[in-house]
Amino acid sequence: MPRSFLSRTFSALVLSLLALAPVTTLAAEVRIKDIADVQGVRGNDLVGYGLVIGLNGTGDTIRNSPYTEEALTNILERLGVNVQDSNFRPDNIAAVLITATLPPFAREGSRIDVNVASIGDASSLAGGTLVMTPLSAPNGDIYAIAQGNLLISGFEAEGDGASVTQGVPTAGAIPNGARVEREIPYDFRAQTTVRLALRMPDFTTAGRVEESINKAVGRPVATLLDSGTIEVDLRGMPGNPAHAMGRLENLTLRSAEIARVVIDQRSGTIVLGEAVKVSSVAVAQGNLTIKIAETPVASQPNPFGFGDTVVLPRTQVQVTDGEPGQVAIVDEAVTLPDLVAGLNALGVSPREMIDILKAIKSAGALHAELVLQ
Questions:
Q1: CB 116 within 8 A of CB 45
Q2: What CA–CA distance (Å, rounded) separates 153 from 67?
Q3: What is the pLDDT of residues 228-257, one digit of tens each?
Q4: Distances (CA, A) of 225 to 219, 228, 251, 252
Q5: Angle at which helices 3-18 and 336-345 pack, to 10 degrees?
Q6: In terms of Cα–Cα distance, which of 79, 99, 90 is closest to 55?
Q7: Using an 8 Å Cβ cutoff, are 116 and 129 in contact?
Q8: What is the pLDDT of residue 11?
Q9: How confident is the model at residue 263 (pLDDT cuts 50, 70, 90)?
Q10: 241-269 b/e with 16+ CB inside 10 Å = b?
Q11: Backbone phi, psi, residue 329, to 5°
């Protein structure tokens, strides 16, 4: 290829990358409540073991799930039904595990959502009803009771020769399916100091939180402890600690953005942050396509002749080398808008862009955290 053509290609692509006007994007203002949690104000996980009844022949098989029969026997005996030495083999019940989260400051009588999942060999929980099941914390104390009709998003249909399954028919949910029976004691009014824990620790963002709180209060009540913790002194603030936190958590600030590139290789999704920088690097993207087609031909003997039918392979290989490989030189300290616009100018698809970003990272020119999912 003539050197002049390469020079013209380089020049055109470099101009397409660098002549684009940079796009300036200001970071959005965020509330403190959206980036930090109050230490001690948290949910608690609950779990329980129970039975789902009323299934249309899609429950556990007793031979493969003997614990289902045992649980059913215990429930019936508590209700005054003697089933000892009885030979019953129901197929309309399923053993399940129930999980839920007890939110902070949940009071007796309030209701919470629960998730239900089969642990046996049931094929579907559609149409089932969860029997009263206690939900306990890791310490064994019971904090809620779950019961109700299941909502299943998946389904399963089968015939003699085929079956169709969509979603997950062996898992479901019960909105407001559990009632809180015990409260977790926590007196927030007695707190004189609280700690704010950043969900994504960062010294810059933590410093801005400290500055925002002190500026709003008018005196140094917030102290930066580390990259993820800010301690706030609530003494002397008007109202009780709950009123003070209600005012402080709605203060806004500009959070520091982390240079990060997230790549989902299954769907071909790429998410790049505004702070992503790229050093000087050359990018080349080829266009090579190989197609292989099989068209076998059957060779048969002449009529009334002797011989066997033979299948002769016929393979066609087609190699297509499309447009000449384009090479682009990315200038020093290119920002996200420049990088995306330049790769789009090359006609790069999202999946090809994933490979390019990986290669740029391996070359040490991508100054950002690369997260692969």
A1: no
A2: 26
A3: 999 999 888 888 888 899 899 999 998 887
A4: 17, 8, 19, 20
A5: 140
A6: 90
A7: no
A8: 38
A9: confident
A10: beebbeebbebebebeeeeebebeeeeee
A11: -105, 115
**Domains of the chain, first to last:** 3-24+260-372 (no CATH), 44-180 (no CATH), 187-254 (3.30.70)
Q: DSSP secondary structure string, 131-148?
A: EEEEEE-TTS-EEEEEEE
Write out the two tokens for 13: 């692509």
Contact 132, 147 (CB under 8 A): yes
Query: pTM of the predicted model, to two decimals?
Result: 0.66
Question: Which candidate, 183, 216, 212, 219, places its Cα nearest to that of 196?
Answer: 212
- Taking the C-alpha atoms of residue 370 and residue 182, their distance in angstroms, rounded to an integer, is 45
Tokens 């970003």 sit at which residue? 357
Tell me phi and psi for residue 72, to 5 degrees.
-65, -40
Q: 145 burial class (0-12, 13-18, 19+ CB within 10 angstroms)?
A: middle
Of 101, 93, 79, 119, nearest in space to 178 by CA = 101
Per the DSSP assignment, residues forming a β-bridge with 140 are none
| Residue (of 53, 72, 52) closest to 62 by Cα position | 72
Residue of 18, 151, 27, 172 whose CA lies nearest to 99 = 172
Indicate the SS3 state at residue 292.
Answer: strand
Radius of gyration of the chain measured on its C-alpha atoms: 32
Collapsed DSSP state (helix, strand, coil) of residue 206 = helix
Q: Do 35 and 108 form a contact (C-beta atoms < 8 A)?
A: no
Q: Which residues of 200-230 are buried (b: 16+ CB within 10 A; e: fewer)?
A: eebeebbebbbebbeeebeeebbeeeeebbb
